[in-house]
Specification:
single chain; alpha/beta; Oxidized Rhodanese, domain 1; 2 domains; 17 helices
Length: about 375
């Protein structure tokens, strides 16, 4: 069966019509970013790709192509033995590599020769990436957002989780970015995705959201850790209706000590992270905080961080960037308990177009 080709922009819109999306690139290329739901069948793995590239440069293209073809044939054979033997005749794979060239073409040719209706992404990942970037503004601008604002430690992420558990539509950018969106927001042992991967994750999340329903999203700056929120999305968020989440200071400190328990368990790591604030807050202030941390007075340091660093900066940023924040409805939590979060989430969902009540829950 002949191999069909599909322009990347059309593949973007028809992605869900394929049974399997196959990335024929190497493992490292796949890890950097890939099509949504793709599985990795390297035609050349990391080491093989380097070896063939070296041969290409140091000897000549003809010798590199011969050796590459031999390796690719073995790898494609292994993929077929492992993944394809049990597939039915009507199995519809979508295949791509970096630019839709030799690696994906070789795999697609073999699958087509078997008799499968295989489709090749025209232009490969490079074209897909360009089409995805072009499509992000359309997806971002078609939705109606309710932006959850509130100072650090007020429970914004916990409220998003409660909203999702109650059936609301939620866009959790910090979860997609593997970061808690502050100087101290790096999560130990959990690396952030590449910018390209983050864009793909945002696109995947946006395309599944219902335009008829509100989307709850936390107020974010343009960057979440090291990745940048797509411009069209941040612009749409900043023009949207806001909720002002409020929680007593003592509860905010307790919540942060729970959510950032790794700082409590590793005071030295906490002190190292505080170094990043030295220029902003002064070396003497940061050193004083570090001494208190090492003395076990972490709650005192957290409260000082909130009152002296995070709250002033957050207030200035939110008022400057979110156009409707001045009209934000207050959403007051008496405490950080799950019951209070659930009750507020239920009230928000029930009255998405009406003022937000405070919740009466007590721990």
């Amino acid at each position: 069966m002949p191999v069909q080709t599909l322009p990347a922009a059309e593949a973007l819109q028809q992605l869900d019509t394929f049974d399997t999306v196959i990335d024929a690139r190497s493992e490292d290329e796949f890890a950097l970013d890939h099509l949504s739901g793709a599985t990795n069948w390297p035609t050349l793995d990391n080491a093989e790709r380097i070896a063939i590239g070296t041969l290409y440069k140091q000897v000549n293209a003809f010798e590199a192509k011969k050796r590459g073809a031999a390796i690719a044939a073995r790898n494609i054979s292994a993929h077929i033995e492992r993944e394809v033997i049990a597939k039915p005749r009507g199995w519809k794979p979508l295949v791509y590599c970096w630019r839709g060239g030799n690696r994906s073409g070789s795999l697609a040719t073999v699958l087509g020769a078997i008799g499968f209706p295989v489709t090749l992404v025209e232009g490969g990942y490079k074209a897909w990436r360009a089409a995805l970037v072009d499509d992000l503004p359309r997806l971002a601008q078609r939705l109606r957002y309710r932006v959850v604002c509130g100072p650090t430690g007020s429970g914004k992420t916990r409220l998003l989780h409660a909203l999702a558990a109650q059936g609301a539509q939620v866009l959790d950018l910090e979860a997609l970015a593997n970061h808690r969106s502050s100087v101290l927001g790096h999560i130990p042992g959990l690396p952030q995705p590449s910018q390209k991967r983050f864009d793909s994750l945002v696109w995947e999340a946006l395309r599944h959201l219902d335009t008829a329903r509100a989307v709850y999203v936390e107020a974010e700056s343009k960057k979440v850790g090291n990745v940048r929120v797509p411009d069209a999305l941040i612009d749409a968020m900043r023009a949207s209706a806001c909720l002002d989440l409020q929680l007593p200071d003592a509860q905010r400190v307790a919540l942060l000590l729970e959510d950032y328990d790794f700082f409590v368990k590793d005071p030295l790591h906490f002190c190292q992270r505080l170094e990043a604030l030295s220029e902003l807050r002064g070396y003497e202030t940061v050193q004083a905080w570090q001494h208190k941390v090492m003395a076990g007075e972490i709650p005192i340091v957290v409260l000082a961080l909130l009152q002296q660093h995070y709250d002033p900066m957050y207030a200035a940023s939110i008022q400057r960037n979110f156009k409707q924040y001045a009209q934000a409805e207050p959403a007051v939590l008496p405490n950080r308990c799950e019951k209070a979060m659930v009750q507020l989430a239920q009230a928000l969902i029930a009255g998405e177009n009406t003022p937000v009540p405070s919740t009466p829950a007590r721990a």
